[in-house]
Amino acid sequence: MNQSNDEQKKASPKPLEDAIAELGRAAFEQPAICTGWVLVSEWFGGNDEYWIVTLHDDSTPPWRHSGMLDYAVNHVAQEMDDYLGVDDDDDDDEDDEDDD
Predict the structure, then answer these.
(1) Same domain, 9 and 47
(2) Rounded Cα–Cα distance for residues 6 and 77 (Å)
(3) 53 and 9 share a domain?
(4) Alpha-carbon torsion (17, 23, 26, 28), positive or negative
């Protein structure tokens, strides 16, 4: 049975919210409540077709979704710099000026 995109989006939040709640229980020692979520996933459908699906909770305003995505992009970029051993010299330069 093939569902349309709209049907999939309507059916998705409950299982996703359950999975996010389970992640919270596993990730944090103290109880925590998820106050908003955004899911970005890449899919491969065969015949070299890839597509991106973005889902989010409907109770959070769009500006929070945008902020979460912006934070995620910057966090991943920092992790990549750390992995590659890239040193952020901008902060060190400011400290050197103060020492003069």
Answers:
(1) yes
(2) 32
(3) yes
(4) negative
The rounded distance, in Å, linking the Cα atoms of 24 and 27 is 5
Indicate if 93 and 53 belong to the same structural domain.
Answer: no
How many domains are there within the chain? 2
pTM reported for the whole predicted model: 0.59
DSSP structure class, residue 88: -
19-48 pLDDT, tens digit per residue, is 888 888 888 888 888 888 888 899 998 888
Residue from 39, 1, 46 nearest 20 by CA: 39
- Domain range for 26: 1-58
Q: What are phi and psi of 11, to 5 degrees?
A: -85, -20
Q: Please name the helix (run of DSSP H) or strand (run of DSSP E) that holds residue 40, with its range, or none.
A: strand 38-44
**pLDDT of 2:** 47
Same domain? 6 vs 54: yes
Distance of CA 35 to the CA centre of its chain: 14
